[in-house]
Amino acid sequence: MTTHWHHSPTHYRPLAAALAVLGLVLVVVLSPDAVRVEAVNIFGTLHAPGELSFVAGHRGGGKDGAPENTVPAFELSLQSDADFIETDLQLTSDGVPVLMHDFTLDRTTDGAGPVWASTWAQVSRLDAGSWFDPAFAGTRVPRLDDLLDIVRPTAKRVILELKGSWNDEQLGPVVDEIRSHGLADRVMIAGFDVRSLAAAQRVGPEVQRVIIIHDVVGDPAVLAATCGAVAIVTSKAFLRADPGAVERIHDAGLGVMIYTLNSSKTWSEAIALGVDGIITDKPLELDRWLATGAG
Q1: What was the pLDDT predicted at 20?
Q2: Hey, is 41 helix, strand or coil?
Q3: In degrees rounded to 5, what are phi and psi of residue 97?
Q4: Separation of alpha carbons 261 and 218, rounded Å
Q5: How far apart are CA 146 and CA 40, in angstroms?
Q6: Which of 160, 192, 205, 291 is a good FRET partner for 176, with 20 to 30 A between their CA atoms?
Q7: CB burial readout 50-87, b (16+ within 10 A) else e
Q8: How far is CA 144 from CA 98, 128, 133, in A?
Q9: How far is CA 258 from CA 132, 146, 172, 271, in A?
Q10: pLDDT confidence of residue 32
């Protein structure tokens, strides 16, 4: 992976140009006396307060009119101006990567028990839509491959959140699918578990990584260096309590994303703070809000 340093304390590129940049560049600053840098990576350059953040559809945008983490939800996100589709990744008992948030099948399907205790043949027969609306009866649990197939012809990008802990062997098929679709420069692997992200770095170093953490304690650059992360996803509660955290994370050359924001008040707060990305269940509604100039 190539590393470029952009010494630019005050200048930030416009959002449109930033999002057009899909380079594979990781900037990590370990010295507290280092000059502020501008990181260029899969989601562009660092944002100044007041600049419009990019948008990621949480679980595919699961409150915009389709059941979360299903192909209909992903298709709605593809129709929106959201830059990213965010989804959750788990393995079936026979090692098939599937997209589901909960560790169990109970809430969003007509199945029961842990995802990892069922084979793909069993999971593939489940109804993943009726719980949301009878109109979606028969909607199936998608595989990672299903999402990558529909994303590939578009300009959209994907954030894959690893649920639980993963090792090198388990991540192998995931990275293989990303590579086989030619999407290594448009997919980010995210997670709370830095050991899983370190495994992702070993198996697929060209696929960028993002740490999800409720509170950023200590030097964010040291945290990111544990797995070569390019950004940190954190909570609105943490940034409200410590609004200076965005600048500290940016000073380390790292991007900042915030989850999960579903109201105009929180969208306004995030943009004012200068976060780089907003993760929302309502990408279409956020589109409309931004289109009115409210942002």
Answers
A1: 33
A2: strand
A3: -70, 120
A4: 25
A5: 29
A6: 192
A7: ebebbbbbbbbbbbbebbbbbbbbbebbbebebbbbbb
A8: 5, 15, 23
A9: 26, 27, 28, 10
A10: 33
Query: Which residue stretches of the chain have pLDDT < 70?
Result: 1-41, 43, 294-295
The per-residue pLDDT for 200 is 98
Which pairing describes strands 157-162 and 97-99: parallel, antiparallel, or unpaired? Answer: unpaired
Token pair of 45 as six digits:
């350059």
Q: How far apart are CA 22 and CA 2, in angstroms?
A: 13
Q: Which amino acid is at 2?
A: T
- Which residue from 146, 192, 139, 147 is spatially nearest to 165, judged by alpha carbons? 192
In contact, 60 and 255? CB cutoff 8 Å: no
Domain 47-291 has CATH 3.20.20.190: yes
CB-based burial label for 128 (10 Å; 0-12, 13-18, 19+): buried
Cβ pair 289, 267 in contact under 8 A: yes
Question: Domain coordinates of the chain in residue numbers?
Answer: 47-291
Task: Report the alpha-carbon distance of residue 269 to residue 53 in Å, rounded.
Answer: 11
C-alpha 74: how far from chain center? 14
